[in-house]
Fold:
Amino acid sequence: MSHDIHKHCVSIELHSGEPKGKLEEDISLGEGLGATYVATPSVQVRKDKAVFYITDLFGITIVNHKLLADAIAEESGLTVYVPDLLGKPEPSGKGAVPVGEQADLFKYLKEKWFAQNPLPTTSQRCQDFIKVLKEKRGFTSVAVVGFCWGGRFAAELASHPEFIDGAVIVHPGFLADHNGNLNKDIVEAINKPTLWIYVIGDYVFPEGARKAAHEILEKNKVPNTFIDFESKDGSGKNRIEHGFAIRGSESDPIVVQARKEAKDHVVKFFRQLYHI
Structure:
C-alpha cells in the first residue's frame, strides 16, 4: 500500500478547550511509547466495556484528540482510551507528526515518520493495547474508533472478533492506493459492525474506494453504515474536507456543525452497539 499523502492529511487547526482526562503510565505499551490518555465519563454506564481511540498522524500530543475523547466518553457513558502508538521519541519529543509548516511536515513524514511507524508494527501495537485493556483494566468488551491514519487500523481490527465488537472508521487513510483502489483484503476480512464517516470528494479515500468497500460489506452481509458529508461553496468545492472531524475549523460554522454531527454519529454507534 502506497505511503502517498495529501495536504489534508497534515492540515490542522488546534482546537480550544481544556482536556478533562488524565495520562496514565501503567497502561502504556512501553518501549519508548508515552502514557495513555484516559477520558472517563461523569456517569460510567458500562464498566465492563471501553472505547479504544486511534489517532491520526499527529498523535495524542495535539489537544484535539483529547477534547474529542472527552466528549465521546461523556456522551456515551464509556471510558475512552487514547494510547500513544507512534514510535520512539524523536528530538522533537515524540514520534507523532510535529505541528509546523506543511512543507516541513511532508519532509518529516518521508524522511522519518513512515520508517519509524511501519504499518505492521502499528497493527501489532493496536492488538497489544487491547490485550492491555482487558488484562490490566478487566474490560470484557472493546469497541474502536480510528481517524485518518488510525482508520486503517480500526478497519483491520474489525476482522478480529477476539479483539473488538465494532469499529468506527473516520475519513480513513491508507485503505486505498495512490490510484484510489481499495485495499480489498482488509475490507473482505471485516466481520464486525462498522460505521464509516466519509467525505465526498476525499482524495485520500475516494468515491471508488468507498463504493467498493460498501459493496463488499453488503455482499458479505456484514452490518455497515456510511455517513457522507458534503457542503459545497459557490465554486462547487466541498467545504468539508478530509480530516474535518478531528482537525476541522472552529471558525467555519459549516465545518463546526459537521464536526458535531460526526461526533454524534460516533456516540450513537457505541450506544447502540452496547445497548446503552
